[in-house]
């Protein structure tokens, strides 16, 4: 797929800003509501956000490093790679989403979590992601490559941004369901 770079960055920024607004809204809920689970194996709303925090710690650092060290300056278009596009699109929420397995290191289930700490960390990391999106406007999203959490694979920066933010959207939807 081919995207106009500015339009893609604007779309992704809109997603991230809505995620920040949602987390701010969650500050109005009590701890019991935020930690409530549908069943023993499901995640609470706070566990969904902690999962995203665990990924953001890796991806924000990786994205920042690649932007700061990129030799490739802005291009008006971003050409998605086959695997990167497939991975990003698979993260978009669908009506009947399949549950996906996650790495043990990124699974917050059974963790002792403080809702306020998780929310504040989430908001901080998402604001950092907004800054990275802004910086990425000056970089070629096709030629700049990033590592991903799967060893040996690299995605184009644009695909990594799409993957991370669509993954965030998926789990924001999951958090909303956990609160119903």
Please describe what this structure looks like.
- This protein has 180 residues and is mainly alpha-helical.
- The protein has a single domain, classed as Four Helix Bundle (Hemerythrin (Met), subunit A) (Up-down Bundle), CATH 1.20.120.
- Helices cover 59% and strands 7% of the residues.
- It contains six helices and four strands, in the order βαααβααββα.
- The protein has helices at 5-26, 31-35, 45-69, 82-91, 115-136, 157-178; strands at 2-4, 77-79, 145-147, 154-156.
- Strands 1-2 form a two-stranded antiparallel ribbon. Strands 3-4 form a two-stranded antiparallel ribbon.
- Helix 1 (5-26) runs antiparallel to helix 5 (115-136), helix 1 (5-26) runs parallel beside helix 6 (157-178) and helix 3 packs antiparallel against helix 6.
- The termini are far apart.
- The mean pLDDT is 92.
- Residues 26-175 form the DinB-like domain.
- It comes from Tenacibaculum holothuriorum.
- This is DinB-like domain-containing protein.
In short:
The chain is mainly alpha-helical. The chain is 59% helix and 7% strand.
Helix-strand layout with pairing:
Blueprint: E1 2-4, H1 5-26, H2 31-35, H3 45-69, E2 77-79, H4 82-91, H5 115-136, E3 145-147, E4 154-156, H6 157-178
CATH class assignment: Mainly Alpha
Q: Report the sheet-strand fraction.
A: 5-15%
* Order of the strands making up the biggest sheet: 1-2
Fraction of residues in helix: 55-70%
Question: Which radius of gyration do the C-alpha atoms yield?
Answer: 16 Å
* Structure class: mainly alpha
Query: What is the architecture at the second tier of CATH?
Result: Up-down Bundle
The tally of beta strands, per DSSP, is 4
* Weakly predicted, low-confidence segments: none
Oligomer: single chain
Sheet having the most strands: 2 strands, antiparallel
Give the termini separation: 36 Å
Please count the helical segments: 6
The shape, in one word, is: elongated
Mean of residue pLDDT?
92
Order of helices and strands: EHHHEHHEEH
CATH topology title: Four Helix Bundle (Hemerythrin (Met), subunit A)
InterPro entries: DinB-like, DinB/YfiT-like
Protein name: DinB-like domain-containing protein
Domain DinB-like: 26-175
